[in-house]
Write a structure and sequence with these properties.
The complex is a heterotrimer of chains A (423), B (560) and C (236).
Chain A: H1 9-18, E1 23-26, H2 33-50, E2 56-62, H3 69-75, H4 81-85, E3 94-99, H5 107-120, E4 124-127, H6 137-148, E5 154-160, H7 167-181, E6 193-196, H8 197-205, H9 217-228, E7 233-240, H10 252-269, H11 271-274, E8 285-286, H12 301-314, H13 316-322, H14 325-335, H15 346-362, H16 367-389, H17 394-410, H18 412-420
Chain B: H1 7-12, H2 15-19, E1 29-32, H3 34-37, H4 48-53, H5 55-61, E2 65-68, H6 96-108, E3 112-117, H7 127-134, E4 146-147, E5 168-171, E6 176-179, H8 194-210, E7 214-217, H9 235-251, E8 256-259, H10 265-268, E9 280-282, H11 286-296, H12 300-308, E10 317-321, E11 328-329, H13 335-345, E12 352-353, E13 356-357, H14 361-364, H15 369-381, E14 385-389, H16 447-452, H17 457-469, H18 472-476, E15 478-481, E16 489-496, E17 499-506, E18 512-516, E19 525-528, E20 543-547, E21 552-558
Parallel strand pairs in B: 1-2, 1-14, 2-3, 3-7, 7-8, 8-9, 9-10, 10-14
Antiparallel strand pairs in B: 4-6, 5-6, 11-13, 12-13, 15-16, 16-17, 17-21, 18-20, 19-21
Helix pairs in contact in B: 8-9, 11-12, 11-13, 15-17
Chain C: H1 2-54, H2 57-62, H3 66-72, H4 78-102, H5 105-148, H6 154-177, H7 181-205, H8 208-219, H9 222-232
Helix pairs in contact in C: 1-4, 5-6, 6-7
Classes of the chains: A alpha/beta (423), B alpha/beta (560), C mainly alpha (236).
């Protein structure tokens, strides 16, 4: 394939001026004026505080913000480092903003970051979200250190979670990736990640990058691609993640479509890797994890259940194309149970996910439709999960999640078999 | 100039520089120690007759002034900075006659001679101190600072923390304490006593009459003490300086004063007064930052310090240097910067001394010719009069195992023959051993070998000095920094009237491209000053230059 | 009389035998042509299928989603489709040639009329085919959207969408073939209008509360909306 020119002249000219760097921090923005200054400050302070001698650059791909985000990024400087750190940066601090075409997803933004990392020979790169309210300079260190001072290639974050937060991760992404790819990664769609320069180059060159992952799908892709290509992974504890963004309130349906869709697609891209993988690898974790009790997330369980049972009822004709008769029957039976006693048991849930993955692979119906019909079932699972753990201690919840992970592992042969079945 | 012995000198000087009282602004100063330069009598110690023999070399180098380190009679407990006779010559270096001869010959060669004026303190062997301590009512008693207790001037910092516990020392003879800011064998003179001031002025007249062209004044900030202050940079100290300057201006309008004040630029600025104190002062904080910038490959440290540097009166000048007889001082940097400097330039803790690094330029630059050239190129093109330390023009090495700062004070390496051509004495007799390692040893690094090649460091340095002297923009011009995006490139314009020089330095170990905003010079043609080649005319678009590793360019901008 | 009968009979027989004698070879020729045509078409089909399989023809379409679309519509793979279509085209051509060989004028006219109508017919079929696809697709999309939006009676919405699209497709197809142009259009317009009116009335009377709720929700303060979102929880 002919190599294409996709970096603007202006961007290249700015990169030329920056030259070789040790640390590159990517900060993709789109209309984040209100929060971005704080984030930029946290990044700069982090770089000066923890890596005063390393050459570093902040790359800010912007999706064409109309609210003056890039101006805010450029203006966000620390007037007096001495007051913050009692020391001065030794080096020139570079903040490069550039426009990327299209606001759909972070694909293009990431591509610019990869290209910049490749061009500047960065040793370690970190990605930070612009809508963070809880980012501290320590995040930079926690993310970058394993790459820069050790030989890790990919650092996934671990956030301090509120109770019942991240249920999609806990019920689907984490255990499915764990079972399929064989890595114990707590946050496979961490928004704040770090990767090595060579991994950035790999990402840039990998054909599968061209997939049009929507939204956070590209984060799933990064994580799984790093796994499938055999790069060294680790996790870093960051603390609570608080954002100002409306994105977190993005509706569940879109979230599932983006995230589960991306994962199924990645499984397709990496099928030769995961279908034959047998081992399970511990991923080293860095950082200090304090025990904090954060307020639980409010979820209207009844509404969830009601949407589940009516959804199963209505979607029968769609689901029968996706699920095996046996599984569908079991789900139908579940949905008819009394709201207070019902359980969407682990085995059924895992089988459901496996069959969805396989049906996605075989394109039994339009893939968007397939993903959308997963949503009501997920609601059922969440409703059941909350019901089951309403009064459980954290350890108890963790124990149940561990059982779920084992269930995924146990059913991996089933997943592989469904995946490879000829239609 | 002086009246007695220096009469022929005046005549021998070329009209231009002789008449110009601002000659120091165009000076390129060569710092040397008579002891280390050349030994004429085979006693293992360099001397004035030996130096005299090498004056042609110094002249050939292109420098315009020699700064002689202390050569006075001294117990040599502080490398001659402990003087026991202000108007004598240490017999090991020769006689007053020899010195006069040296002055005369130097002036014939258009070389000015600057000597040390160590007036803050004397040696405790100085007759003045011997008299002062002999009894409490000796007339010289008040020439020093005495006290019955050691609690006056509390809170004043101790400079040599490693060796001294107090600024007061007990004198068992007169049973009282005397004040000393440096070693206890260096009692401070009392500048509140007009007699002392008068005496110092006599000393200056003594040397100026002989033909000395200027004085480098040692330890300036500490001259006067006052209760409740840090005893540094006091207004009374400035009064002392102003007095000496007034006297000097009246009697020797061509002479000049150079201050050693290791302070931040804003503090040093006061020593220029309104042009009525020092003519020149060393810019200490700039030096470590030049080293830092080359290692960081980032112009930020130099830009930061130069932007913090205040303007100085028209008749004043900064003295800038890369290395000198002391350690590379890291007092004027932050802790972070010091740690960095230690880590990158003195990983071997043996190279560290006090708050600094006791190494010569070439070993600091890992003997990398390109970096040596870049550093010297910046030295010669930044605002100020450059000071070269003897031996650095041939890339001499050091010996950090010699203790104190002796490692950078080894004999000058003239040739590959006996004792490097420095002395006919037995090698064991030399005041310090010669360097003999395969990289920096005198067999490898010496003047004779480098004279043979047009491409040696020595020949290159000569050329550099020559080119620098070809434009007064370097010595007297203003500086304006360009801010290209590429922070590895340090570029500025030196300008004096219509004489404009564009300097572009690549601080990086790799090739760099830089786009310079030269719109202000649209239509000018840059002419590379070393080869004389014209470069493409400057247009409206950014001027693109590419520079090899550690490359630098000097362009004269001409409107043709 | 008898002779006359016999003669006429003979004449008729002769005429019949003449006709038969005349038509039989033609019939035979037609049968042969049709049979040979079938054989040729079959051979071509087999060879083509082999070639396409060898050339990994299906792969070519996999990435473009054609295979997926076909399999969703319960149709065979592209290679299979193409070889079968070619088979039919070849064979039908032979049949038409055979019919022509019969030399029956009326038949010939019918054939030419048929051939003339064929493109319209194919287009109509295609319209119906894609109409079905679209109806399936959009009705399912509507169903899923309705389910996930927790709106009432998703199946009715979905069925309604399917009906509308099919109605549109069939109308278009019939119009293409040129059958009862006016009738079809009027029927379509009437049923479409009726449905719209029904909807309006249903929404206005029965769905008053629903409508109010929807409007309220739309214009409600952001605070309320956020609260509702919070109830959904954060799943990432």
């Amino acid at each position: 394939m002919a190599e294409e020119t996709f970096l603007s002249d202006e961007f290249v000219s700015q990169l030329t001026a920056v030259g070789e760097v040790d640390i590159l921090v990517g900060l993709p923005t789109f209309n984040n004026r209100d929060t971005v200054q704080r984030v930029v400050n946290a990044i700069l302070v982090g770089l000066v505080k923890y890596y005063p001698r390393e050459r570093s650059v902040l790359i800010n791909p912007d999706g064409g913000s109309k609210d003056g985000t890039t101006e805010a990024v450029q203006a966000a400087s620390i007037p007096d480092f001495r007051a913050v750190l009692a020391s001065n940066p030794l080096r020139t601090m570079h903040v490069v903003s550039a426009l990327y075409p299209g606001v759909q997803g972070e694909n293009e933004a990431l591509r610019m970051v990869f290209a910049a990392a490749d061009l500047l020979g960065a040793k370690a790169c970190a990605l930070i979200s612009p809508d963070l309210e809880s980012a501290t300079p320590e995040w930079i260190d926690a993310l970058v250190r394993p790459v820069l001072k050790d030989t890790f290639d990919f650092v996934a974050p671990i956030y301090q979670r509120r109770r019942f937060e991240g249920l999609l991760v806990k019920n689907l992404l984490h255990p499915l990736i764990r079972a399929a790819y064989g890595y114990q990664l707590e946050e496979p769609v961490g928004r704040e990640v770090a990767f090595s320069g060579r991994l950035a180059s790999y990402f840039l060159g990998d054909e599968s990058r061209r997939e049009n992952f929507a939204g956070l799908g590209s984060h799933v892709w990064m994580t799984t691609a790093a796994m499938a290509a055999g790069y060294r992974l680790c996790q870093a504890f960051l603390g609570p993640r608080v954002t100002s963004s409306r994105r977190s309130a993005l509706d569940l349906n879109t979230t599932i479509q983006e995230i589960a869709g991306a994962l199924f697609r990645c499984m397709e891209l990496h099928q030769s890797y995961w279908t034959s993988r047998q081992t399970l690898e511990e991923v080293p974790t860095f950082g200090f994890q304090p025990v904090l009790n954060l307020d639980p997330v409010r979820i209207d369980r009844r509404r969830m259940f009601q949407m589940f049972s009516s959804g199963v009822d209505d979607l029968g004709s769609v689901l029968e194309k996706i699920l095996s008769a046996e599984t569908l029957q079991a789900i139908k039976d579940t949905s008819k149970l009394d709201e207070k006693n019902f359980r969407f048991v682990d085995e059924l849930w895992v089988k459901t996910v496996c069959e969805f993955a396989a049906s996605y692979h075989h394109s039994v119906i339009n893939r968007d439709h397939l993903l959308q019909s997963l949503t009501p079932l997920y609601r059922g699972r969440v409703s059941s999960f909350i019901l089951e753990n309403a009064r459980a201690e954290a350890e108890e919840v963790e124990r149940r999640l561990e059982l779920l992970r084992h269930e995924y592992e146990r059913l991996k042969p089933y997943l592989v078999e469904s995946w490879n079945r000829q239609t | 100039m002086s009246t007695t012995s220096a009469v022929p000198n005046v005549a021998s000087k070329t009209s231009d520089s002789a008449a110009d009282p601002l000659w120091y602004k165009d000076a390129v100063i060569y710092e040397l120690h008579a002891r280390a330069f050349n030994d004429s009598n085979g006693d293992g110690i360099g001397d004035f007759p030996g130096l005299l023999q090498k004056l042609d070399y110094v002249q050939d180098l292109g420098v315009t002034a020699i700064w002689l380190l202390p050569f006075y009679p001294s117990p040599l407990k502080d490398d001659g900075y402990d003087i026991s006779d202000y108007t004598g010559i240490n017999p090991a270096y020769g006689s007053l006659e020899n010195f006069k001869e040296l002055l005369e010959q130097a002036h014939r060669r258009n070389l000015r001679v600057i000597t040390e004026l160590v007036i803050n303190h004397t040696s405790d062997q100085h007759p003045w101190f011997q008299e002062a301590r002999s009894s409490r009512d000796n007339p010289r008693r008040n020439w020093y600072v005495w006290s019955d207790t050691d609690d006056r001037y509390r809170g004043v910092r101790i400079i040599f923390k490693d060796t001294e516990l107090s600024n007061w020392a007990w004198d068992p003879i007169s049973k009282s304490y005397y004040w000393h800011r440096f070693f206890s064998h260096q009692p401070d003179l009392n500048f509140d006593n007009p007699a002392v001031l008068e005496e110092i002025w006599k000393v200056m007249q003594f040397w100026s009459d002989m033909g000395v062209d200027g004085f480098r004044v040692d330890a300036v900030p500490y001259l006067v003490e006052r209760e409740g202050t840090s005893c540094e940079n006091l207004p009374e100290t400035h009064e002392v300086v102003k007095f000496l300057r007034r006297q000097l201006n009246e009697k020797y309008p061509q002479s000049f004063l150079l201050a050693e004040a290791n302070q931040w630029p804003a503090d040093v600025r006061h020593y220029f007064g309104t042009g009525d104190e020092f003519h020149m002062a060393f810019h200490f904080p700039l030096m470590p930052r030049m080293f830092m910038a080359v290692k960081l490959e980032d112009r930020k440290p130099i830009m930061d310090i130069l932007q913090q540097t205040p303007d100085i009166p028209e008749n004043c000048q900064w003295g800038i240097f890369l290395r000198n007889h002391d350690e590379l001082t890291l007092e004027m940097v932050t802790d972070e910067e010091r740690d960095y400097m230690y880590d990158v330039y003195a990983l071997d803790s043996g190279a560290r001394l006090n708050l600094g690094i006791r190494r010569r330029l070439a070993p600091l630059m890992e003997n990398d010719r390109r970096r040596l050239e870049l550093m010297n190129g910046m030295l010669m093109s930044l605002p100020g009069s450059p000071v070269l330390y003897y031996g650095d023009e041939i890339g001499m090495g050091d010996n950090i195992f010699l203790g104190d700062r002796n490692g950078v004070r080894t004999p000058m390496q003239w040739s590959g023959s006996w004792n490097a051509g420095f002395s006919a004495a037995d090698p064991e007799r030399l005041y310090l051993p010669l360097l003999s390692n395969p990289v920096y040893g005198y067999q490898t690094v010496n003047v004779e070998a480098q004279r043979r090649s047009d491409h040696s460091l020595l020949s290159w340095m000569k050329r550099l000095i020559q080119v620098r002297k070809s434009s007064r923009a370097f010595s007297r011009g203003g500086i304006e920094f360009l801010q290209p995006r590429n922070h590895r490139v340090f570029a500025y314009i030196r300008q004096l009237g219509n004489d404009r020089v564009l300097v572009v330095n690549n601080l990086s170990r790799s090739a760099q491209a830089v786009e310079l905003d030269l719109r202000a010079f649209e239509g000018y043609i840059p002419i590379e000053m070393f080869g004389g080649n014209p470069f493409p005319r400057i247009g409206r678009i950014p001027y693109l230059l590419t520079l090899g590793p550690y490359n630098f360019y000097w362009f004269r901008l001409r409107r043709l | 009389m008898r002779e006359l009968v016999i003669r006429n009979l003979r004449g008729a027989l002769t005429a019949v035998s003449d006709i038969v004698a005349e038509a039989l070879p033609r019939l035979l020729a037609m049968a042969i042509i049709v049979l040979v045509g079938w054989a040729i078409a079959w051979v071509i089909e087999v060879i083509l299928r082999r070639l396409l399989v060898l050339a990994r023809f299906n792969r070519l379409f996999e990435s473009k989603g054609v295979t997926r679309a076909l399999s969703i519509a319960a149709l065979p793979s592209p290679a299979e489709m193409i070889s079968r279509i070619v088979f039919w085209i070849v064979w039908v051509s032979f049949i038409l040639v055979g019919v022509n060989a019969l030399g029956v004028v009326a038949l010939q006219r019918e054939v030419s009329a048929f051939v003339g109508l064929l493109p319209q017919f194919v287009v109509a079929l295609l319209i119906i085919f894609f109409g079905f696809l679209a109806a399936n697709f959009f009705s399912r999309a509507a169903l899923l959207a309705a389910v996930n939006a927790n709106s009432p009676s998703p199946r009715i919405v979905s069925g309604f969408v399917r009906f509308l699209i099919l109605l549109l497709a069939i109308t278009m197809a019939l119009e293409r073939v040129g059958l009862g142009r006016g009738v079809v259009l009027v029927a379509f317009a009437v049923s479409f209008g009726a449905i719209m009116m029904g909807l309006g009335i249903a929404f206005g009377l029965g769905g008053r509360h629903v409508a109010r709720r929807i409007l309220e929700r739309r214009f409600a303060a952001g605070r309320e909306r956020r609260e509702e979102k919070d109830d959904e929880g954060s799943h990432l």
